[in-house]
């Protein structure tokens, strides 16, 4: 069994990943509550930097995650800056900005970084899903942008879906399945 140290300050990200990978006989996630510095860059660069920093802290196999919301009308913003963007203006602020545009299309993106340890190559795994920005309902739960992102083909936002349903097709699910395939093949070698 491969022990993978998942460094994130967001416990919800860890819990979601642990639920998705929980039935894997090859992978055991261990949560480390660490706030990693983030470059002001694109997803891949941010994740590579976070992963190398995490590997130096743990001195072993690490996993990091960066997720964001890319809005077509805003030329991909807030993208990798989603967390900071939403901390400053909130979900309502983003909805207000987007109300100036007809195009409400968006993409949820999750990029994972994995490395065996310090000075080892960082492998990237990206999952994305297309959708639309919607107003949150009173019952919305979830983290970050879940309350305003409605995946194509769904009648509700991520936050209004049962967690088990979201975890069957989300952007994080897609990225984690790529990681799982990689680690499973690695275990068989």
Would you tell me the structural class of the helices and strands? alpha/beta
In the predicted model, the low-confidence regions spanning at least 5 consecutive residues are none
- Taking Cα atoms only, what radius of gyration do you get, to the nearest Å? 17 Å
Overall tally of domains: 1
- The number of helices is 5
How far do the termini sit from each other? Answer: 13 Å
Mean pLDDT: 91
Task: Give me the CATH fold name.
Answer: Maf protein
Oligomer: single chain
Please provide the ordered H/E string of secondary-structure elements.
EHEHEEHEEEHH
Q: How does the overall form come out from the CA principal axes?
A: globular
Strand content: 25-35%
CATH architecture: Alpha-Beta Complex
CATH class: Alpha Beta
Structure write-up:
With 189 residues, this protein is α/β, with parallel strands linked by helices. It has helices at 11-21, 43-58, 82-98, 163-166, 171-188; strands at 2-7, 27-32, 62-71, 78-79, 105-115, 123-133, 149-151. It has a single domain (2-188), classed as Maf protein (Alpha-Beta Complex). The protein is 35% helix and 26% strand. It starts with a strand and ends with a helix. 38% of the residues are buried. The model has no long low-confidence stretch (mean pLDDT 91).
